[in-house]
User: Fold this.
Amino acid sequence: MPNVYLRRTNRRRWLAFVTACALLVAGQLWLHLDSRQAFTGVWAGLAWLWDNFMPDQAAWHDLPTIAYQLWRTVVIAIAATSTAAIVAVGLGLAGATTTGRVRWLRGGVRLFASVMRNFPFVAWALILLFSFKQNDFTGFLALFLMTIGYLTRAFIETLEEVGGGAIEALEATGARYWPIVIQGVLPAAIGGLLSWVLYMIENNIRDATLVGMLTGTGIGFTFDLYFKSFRYPSAGLVVVALIITTIVIELLATHLRQVLTH
Amino acid sequence: MTQAPQPPVRPLRPAQRATRGLLLTLAVISIYAGLTMQTDHLDWGVAVTSFWHNLQLMIAHPHLGQDTWPALWQAFTNTIALALLTTLLGAVIAFFLALATARPFAPRLLALAMRSLMAVIRAIPTILWVLVYATVIGLGNEAAVVGLTFHSVAYLTKAFAEAMETVPPAKLAALRATGCGFWLTVRHALWPEVRASLLSWTFIRFEINFTNAVAVGAAAGTGGIGYNLFMASAFNFDFQEVGLIVYLLLAFAIGLELIAIRMRRHLAH
Assistant:
């Protein structure tokens, strides 16, 4: 007996498979990709990296500069994320359905968060560089503006998880808005909020290299300088330092998140 | 004189202690950053007014500049194709690598090696991969594809492996007990369980890769709309065109976000 259900799911499966393959081929054709060159390039690139980026004697002399720039970058990424978090808590309280009391403000906050989240950060970096010139503050501002949309959206969801029940219970005791928020909602949500902050710090330290390249600040600029003046061993040392920093921060953040949410 | 009995001081829970410690650390670091921030050649009044002026130009008066519509459109579709191709390639490769990383399938040593390797690749920013490949293969789409794929594979392998580890081991054991081989187990026990979550991770990566494709074009000059954005802003100082490109990118990204919300709702049911 032919199984109609099986035949239909089979057809859908094939359709999905064929669509995926078609998209792959279409993408390749669209970009005029030379697949063989790209494929052999993968190994050539790794070999090149190994040959040229190995830190040598001269590179170790740059270590103090690299370490200092990396430290500045990490500090500024943390400061930008923390500052953005303070603003995002305010926006999150106004935007969450449980704590936001003004309807149009809730919608406005959500729209603002969505636009900021999707605003291309390359554009932020470039227009900030034009006005604020090449200094630490430009990098700080770029990371701050990039973070605010993400955190607002994440905070709205975290704050809503606290639930209306707890708020209603506190209201029944006669508590007013701010005491409810400060002593009821925020303490219940703080673990979740801080987990998001940690996640964004991790992310921002990864992105700081790119932002630094575009705005001419921090470790991104240091790398760009070495790379463009063909001092590859020093650039390699920057990469090694970046790998270590990122992995340490990732492990630290993962550990802290586990402690916070238990 | 007798003292009123004091309520016993409750010791803090580990989570509370961690919360206080973290808040304090973040505050101290932020204040330190604020105090030591270098603001050379910065005239606050001029900077803020010029920033505000440019923002107004961008938002209120988007306009075509040096580029023509067809050129801009070509660059835009190039960026989308780049994001699509690297995400799909990354997802396919990551699926097989995740099988070698997830605990129920891989031997412990192999899993550990894979995990470490992926962590290292992820720690290197996408832009560095692209710059390196632009030097070796030459500026162009190939460099961008290879560079973006590298990072996507490392990211998705981690996400996929974590998704695979949520499959109840009893399910896999049951199929193995009936004599199913490795691929049959994967196909009939693993795949139906993880399909939805792999799909949503792939979609998240598509959004990330779209942003990255723009950034890579701007910072490495490998083409796509990012390059136009960079030229309009850093070379021609034409903020009206920057505004136009930003609107184009925003429209696409918000469209993706709406699709993602729908997809999540669909998968949840």
User: Anything to note?
Assistant: The mean pLDDT of chain A is 87. The first helix of chain A runs from residue 4 to 30. Residues 4-52 of chain A form one domain. Chain A touches chain B through 71 residues (CB under 8 Å).
